[in-house]
Design a protein that fits this description.
This protein is an alpha+beta fold and 596 residues long. Among the domains are: 195 residues, Aminohydrolase, N-terminal nucleophile (Ntn) domain (Glutamine Phosphoribosylpyrophosphate, subunit 1, domain 1), CATH 3.60.20.10; 215 residues, 3-Layer(aba) Sandwich (Rossmann fold). The chain has 25 helices and 18 strands. Strands 3-4-5-6-10-11 form a six-stranded antiparallel β-sheet. Strands 16-13-12-17-18 form a five-stranded parallel β-sheet, with helices on both faces. A three-stranded antiparallel β-sheet has the order 8-7-9.
Amino acid sequence: MVHAMRERGPDSGAFYSTPGYSAGMRRLAINDLVTGDQPLLNEDETVVLFYNGEIYNAPELRKELQSRGHTFRTLSDGEVICHLYEESGESMLEQLDGMFALALWSASERKLLLGRDIPGEKPLYYAQLSQGGLAFASTIPALLKCSALNTALDYEALWDFPSFLWIPEPRTVYRNVLSLPKSHYLVHDSRGIRLRRYRNLFNTQRLNDSSADGIAAETRRVVSDAVVSRLMSDVPLGAFLSGGLDSSIVASIAARHVPTLRTYTVAFEDVHDPYHGRADESEYAAETASILGTVHRTVRVTAGDFLEQLDSFCIAAGQPFAVSSGLGIKSIARAANDDGLKVLLTGDGADENFGGYSWYPYLDLGKPPARCPQEFITSYQNFGMPLEERLRVIAEYPAAGRAWAWHYYGSEQEKKELFSRDIAEMAKTSLRWFSAYNDSSAWSPRDYIRHDREFYFPNEMLQKCDRMLMAHSIEGRVPFAAPSVLSHSDKLQLSDMIEGDVLKVTLRRAFGDLLPESVIKRPKHGFNVPIDHWLRGEWSHLVDEAFAPSSKLAASGLIQAGSGAYAKRLLSNPGRLSGHTIFSFIVLNRWLELKQ
């Protein structure tokens, strides 16, 4: 199992075994290069820790623990966890500011504690075994090395996949493998298994100074502190730089502290779609890098280059994952690895925290009507329909239908035309992921944004960052995922985020003097891949392969006859972007082929 995670830790490996417990890890050495190998121990070696991640407030915690008489063996940031456990037990997790997946063995209690960070940056999967034991790992493929594990597929999770392009946690593609939820820990001891949440960041308080200037000042402080704390490293680090607001903020703060900061952007075929805008933003990124004085590299790729990476992309995710922008992230990770870097900072999370998505100005559609449609076909991505008409249709949906329509992909009706009848009949609607969040039929705009922060951000953005970067042994750090930033953003009102059609107004105001006006005023843009364009052109053969009678999808009984023709009709419809929905089936087919 440990050797299966070599890419996540190519520098060293370690094992620990005692009656009733065995564990190991692969290390990506970033801090304390000399004495930081694991396991990490307390003074009498009754607390044994393996962990992946960074504890950014470790210096402060170390000083406090030393003042209480604790003796440290290493300079590792993770060693504070061992001593905190001695002081506070399970509640020590609440004191950690960082990203982590940890396995702590308490020999005196014969207790295993698995823990995961608050935003969900680092993955941790587990499975209960038929003999009564528990297996865990940072990746699903590593967990599958456990021969006692039942590897039956979870068809309900597969049904969700084309709607979201990922499988919502805590489910995975395997029925008997679960993801430890973010902000949770698991205890396994003689009393069995207990799963508990240790932090909830929802906040109904307002800021002490709720004026526009006061909110901007606090935003600048919180975001700046998060970026600076995430520069902790004994090895070279870099940053993504798209040329837009979010990554430019992170890179500009980092560049003030790291004079030789390396920045990266990806460049590819510059096409336009009405949802993402221009595909290639490398020119803007280069201009911003010149202003910031970073050592900048543009990674140029083509549709053919991405096609060559498709298999490794499917492997890197560990389970079906069809967020096509991950191909660009992975290309940058490979380049950064070639340049000798081990850490990259990203601007992910600013949209969810500060109101950056193009549909956010339209969230307040009023209370849904008493009688709502049973089927939801029209979404915000129906660009062949005038905006006013789209909004009128979405206004007829209940809260769960609206939440899908704003942000997501394959509809329940479209999936019924693609998946086999058996799958469609046994599956529960994917809209259940919204109903579980808030049973009320009327959500406030803040509810939708909070749901994006709690659901979309960890499942898509943080997974993409971790899986694609770690495939090339690069640690991704996301300052906008800091618990302090998440807590701060939850205090903001919609009016603090959006003014008219201007998005992220507080973030723009907070950093207006730090960045050139061209960046402050530039519309949102990410590392987007023109997937619809490619699937109708250079990648069209992938559609034929995935839906062919001889494909793994067909052989596994997952798709129905005629689904290929329906997929092509979706792609050819100029009024709706369906490329990501179809790409999810292509990825699922390739994943099934590769897992054999």
